[in-house]
Amino acid sequence: MKYLVDTNVWLQAILGRSHAHDVVRPLNEVKPGLLATTDFTLHTVGIRVTPTKPDQFISFLDDLIARRVNTLHLAASDLRAVVKTMQTLDSILMTRCSMCRPNDMT
User: Would you list the domain boundaries of the chain?
Assistant: First the structure.
């Protein structure tokens, strides 16, 4: 099983936020090659960390490479399917949840 790691999880660990210990231990317990992240996440972490801690961002990248963390990409042509899926899910949710309907919200 592979695990997709969110931006906030990486930032907790890199910046030593209040829940860093909660995310670092499980990340370290996963075998190399079983973690994945998105290119969007990598860019977001870089934008957030580099201005104040560029060495930490380089260290983060080195760790990702050493642990063989997979980077997932979506081509622009694939984003059409994402939009369709979001619209479908939104439609399903709106029909099942009357409180979610925009017309009912004031």
Answer: 1-73, 75-106
pTM of the predicted protein model: 0.70
Question: What is the tens place of the pLDDT at every residue in 66-94?
Answer: 999 999 998 888 888 888 888 888 777 66
Q: What distance in Å separates the CA atoms of residue 39 and residue 46, rounded to the nearest whole number?
A: 11
- State which fold the 1-73 domain adopts: Rossmann fold (3.40.50)
